[in-house]
Structure formats: C-alpha cells, structure tokens
Amino acid sequence: MSILKVDTINEKTSGNGVQIAGHVIQRVSTKFSTETINSTQSFADISGASITFTPKSASSLLYITFNWSMNAYTSGTNTNAGGIVRIIHDGSALDYNAAGNYEWYFQNDAGAGVGPNQYARQVKIATVAASNTNARVIKAQGRIYASPTVAIRINQAGYYTSYFMVEEIAQ
Prior knowledge:
28% of the residues are buried. This protein has no helices and eleven strands. 0% of the residues lie in helices and 50% in strands. It is elongated, with a radius of gyration of 20 Å. The strands form two sheets. Strands 1, 2, 4, 8, 10 and 11 form a six-stranded antiparallel sheet that branches. Strands 3, 5, 6, 7 and 9 form a five-stranded antiparallel sheet that branches. It is an all-beta fold.
C-alpha cells in the first residue's frame, strides 16, 4: 500500500481543479444587521441579503441558506400578523408558491387591545443546479401576508444579525 502526502495541490490549468462529489467547492456569505421594513403585499429586497455568485462548475449544486430575525406585528384589537420570505436565484423564485400567502402567521386574543407582536429566528434553505458558470444574483425578499399585518421587520432596529450564504457543492 502506498501513501501520498502533500501540502498543496495546484491545478495545472485554471478551472480544472480537483472536485470531489458532495464536497464544497466554494462558499460566499454575508452577515448583516441592517433593518428592512416592508408594510406591503409586494415582495421587497431584504437589505444585506444579496450575493453575486459565479459557480466554478456548471454541474454543481448551489445550496442557499438564509438565517434571519423576523418580527411581524399589527396594532389595536387585530388578532393576527404574518409574512413570507422567498429566495430569488437569477430572477426566479426558488421556493415560493403564489397560493401560499404566508409562512409565518401569529394570532392571539386581542381583547385587551394589544395585537400580535411576534419575534422569531427563521431559517430557509433552497437548492438549485448551477447549470452554467455565469455570474448571477441570489437574494432574499419579504412581504406581509395581508392586512391587518402592519409590517414585517428583518433585524428590527439593527438589534439582530442575519446570515445569507451560498455554497457550491460538487456533483
């Protein structure tokens, strides 16, 4: 039996590096505390949750993770609040079904005149085939589910930190 020990493997030609199926080829991430507020039913970009990504291999899989702090709230005697976040890859939503109005929905007894004001840490994961080695924008967007939700807030007042990450996995 032979053992090969090396400190560095350099590719002979650019773009022809060693890629082992199931292993991470590259990882790009962003960490941010910027607050994003949306009080409409139209999707809006979440500040800080955007990465321009160029795959190294057209046959790889992109594994996208978004971990964020979300607050959905209403006011007065309204009893529910909610919202939805989606991941966009090169202009197309990866994980959004228009029939679903909300993913996060909170309800309480507002008889005392205090509507829901829910804070929660959320995680969303999506995958997509790289398909080519062209640069593309990968980002997150959010919106309220409907009235009476006043707004959703990501990283309310900058108190919280969120993470957006794209990993390229060899296939």
